Amino acid sequence: MKTKEQIEVKDAKRIVMYDIDLSDVIRYSCIIDGDTHMYTTDGYNRPHITLEQWIDFAKSRYLYYSILTE
I want to staple 17 with a disulfide (CB 3.0 to 4.6 A). Which of 25, 33, 47, 60 is the partner? Predict the structure, then answer.
């Protein structure tokens, strides 16, 4: 089992949709072990997070789902 420090995250992105469609949504994506992981915040029900927080959150979700599928 990998630890959070051992997980390699590639191509992490934080896209502010206001610049594209004037919405309050921010979209996040990254690649872990060849799989694309995505997340969306709206600032109301899901507060916006920084890119560093997104990477940490993506690693945690990856570990959680890998435990569930073992």
Answer: 25
Contacts of 56 (CB under 8 A, 6+ apart): 4
Residue found by looking up tokens 């089992």 in the block: 1
pLDDT tens sequence across 11-68:
999 999 998 999 999 999 999 999 999 999 999 999 999 999 999 999 999 999 988 8
3-state secondary structure the chain: CCCHHHCCEEEEEEEECHHHHCCCCEEEEEEECCEEEEEEECCCCCCCCCHHHHHHHHHHHHHHHHHHCC
